[in-house]
Amino acid sequence: MSLPQEELPEPVRADPPxxxxxxxxxxxxxxxxxxxxxxxxxxxxxxxxxxxxxDTLDGVTYVGLVAFRxxxxxxxxxxxxxxxxxxxETNVRLYSVDAHGRxxxxxxxxxxxxxxxxxxxRAAFRIPYVWSRMEVRREDDTITYTSRxxxxxxxxxxxxxxxxxxxxxxxxxxxxxxxTARWGMHTAFFDRPLYLPNAHPRWPLHRAELxxxxxxxxxxxGLPAPVGEPVSVLYxxxxxxxxxxxxxxxxxxxTP
Length: 256
Fold this sequence. Notes:
Layout: E1 25-39, H1 41-44, E2 52-54, E3 61-75, E4 87-98, E5 103-112, H2 115-125, E6 129-139, E7 142-151, E8 158-168, H3 174-180, E9 184-189, E10 192-199, E11 206-215, H4 217-220, E12 232-243
Parallel strand pairs: 5-6
Antiparallel strand pairs: 1-3, 1-12, 2-4, 3-4, 4-5, 6-7, 7-8, 8-11, 9-10, 10-12, 11-12
């Protein structure tokens, strides 16, 4: 019996696909710093869930370190939670595409400062959240994000990122769209592939100057430690986000 052919990746889109139905999850992502380094696809392929492969642009893929403020997470259309649903977060992510051509991200770690969301994310959804002591501080046009890991480890893994926000990006490049306009997440749920779609307005992006980057979160996530300056540093004031329910077919919630 022949195996099904993989579909070509969908186009890189600056705007989301139409959102369908009642959202599973709503939240806002605020004050985001996007740092990216180029990486060989062969170096990260083994770290992706089954059924996905590294997504590439001109033969290169990327590792992202993204720091921001999560704001008012809400479930099933209910109002967002002010305390437990609002916290700093810093994630390490890779770029993926599946056999159906759907582009997405794969999270290797997500440091967050609220213990209950970390426990729920790990236990219920198998998402690699970790509990960290974190702070986001803004002074004029400079934003500093700090993180030091508590549980489950490696204890003490840390990051300190400081950026100076610059001018708005009038027309983002193909690479900037590739790194930021991602409309789904690939993960595994009890060792079976899962795709979770999301939608939000087009990113308002700004140039940013990296003032400080002292981190070992990328290496702690099982990736080669970044060498040299990031190839891309961007800032966004943020967007409201809605996550849809995973499609039952193809490659959505596993079915018998």
